[in-house]
Amino acid sequence: LAELVRKHPRRFPAFVASLPMNDPAGLLKEARRAVRDLGAVGVQVFTNVLGRPLTAPETMPLFDLMARLDLPIWLHPARGAETPDYPGEKRSHYEIWWTLGWPYETSVAMAHIVFAGLFDKYPDLKIITHHMGGMIPYFEGRVGPGWDQLGTRTSDVDYTKLLRKLKKRPLEYFKMFYADTALMGAWEATKCGLNFFGPERVLFASDSPFDPEKGSMYPRTTIEIIERLDVSPEERHAIYEGNARRLLKLP
Amino acid sequence: LAELVRKHPRRFPAFVASLPMNDPAGLLKEARRAVRDLGAVGVQVFTNVLGRPLTAPETMPLFDLMARLDLPIWLHPARGAETPDYPGEKRSHYEIWWTLGWPYETSVAMAHIVFAGLFDKYPDLKIITHHMGGMIPYFEGRVGPGWDQLGTRTSDVDYTKLLRKLKKRPLEYFKMFYADTALMGAWEATKCGLNFFGPERVLFASDSPFDPEKGSMYPRTTIEIIERLDVSPEERHAIYEGNARRLLKLP
What we know:
Oligomer: homodimer
Number of helices of chain A: 12
Structural class of chain A: alpha/beta
Radius of gyration of chain A: 19 Å
Order of helices and strands of chain A: HEHEHEHHHEHHHEHEHH
């Protein structure tokens, strides 16, 4: 990827590195190498590491490193048919693992990051969530007044202590994530997500080429939506490229 | 409940019955008894039966019965901390099972109902989903063009056959559900859900008393939202009570 960017800088202005999350020592070395030696402008990780949360002690140092480097982490959902939707079944049916399971994965990873206190430790940590923040904007009410009552539904762990330790309401931390516009042409959802994160935290993405036209449909419908949004020209420009330039430190 | 309705008809105009889904034979008997003998105007079931989908052969006859009776089925999510969010963990943390797991449960149950072909069999089947249709409206793009490609992500089952057997696009079936307004004060999400299902399929609900004020907050914030919606007076009336009167056959 570094070579591609060197050779075709006008077509590929930058790249982000994929990391070996299953190898905690190698992970940090590779992240440093990708950023310092190869010029990566961020990293992408999946929403779980071998079926465990990203905030497990082994992979936690990645967040420290990326906060120090002040470069973003892209969060991509990972789940397959082998994760059943019902405990009584062996596998997920009808590709539910993809349609619904991926946004669920993203949302669960976001919750672990929030409740691990990462945004209190690193208020400027930049994490870009796929599909406009997973389920979080639509369930703003559950995340807001619902999670304000964290602990009232649990008897064997005292979550009220955790709630008191956090400096803000849980909802406020969820607004500290960044989100992309890859909602596959969903107009109302795009407005809902944009309202939740604000135009300075939403970045253009289309999920091309995974559309029925094999690549042309999602960019077209996503651009149509962004053109229709009730935002200022500056905000529209920020969504298309300004936010990316700022986060990735591109000229 | 039947007695309560008889005694206080102005306060409790009707009731719906809870059913023993773990007892397939008793289930049908009890549904018939509740509706015919006791006057129930519908039934409520949970989104899974002992960890299996509602569309398993044992419980499928309930849909036949309710379609014949032409009365609604309320779908309530069911999941607890014992359902882990990561395969590598023993349980769900931070009450994720509630905040995110419940809408996921609702969405998964909706998908099983759609792909079991229930709406082709019973186009007038009335199923009322909690929390404004779970994740479906926000992920209209994944449910739409995403599920139009059902089968392309799976090699061991031929889902393209299933897709051809359905009379409509998957997305169109998801719009045949009804949804309630219990979004705990989420304004943008309410607009998104209303736009998806349409004002003739959205019913007032508040989730009272599970709010931080122990009952007064969610009705108040939900009513504030419905008052602000850009709908006609007739549509607003339908959301508040007209749709319920129609579905429940109340005077």
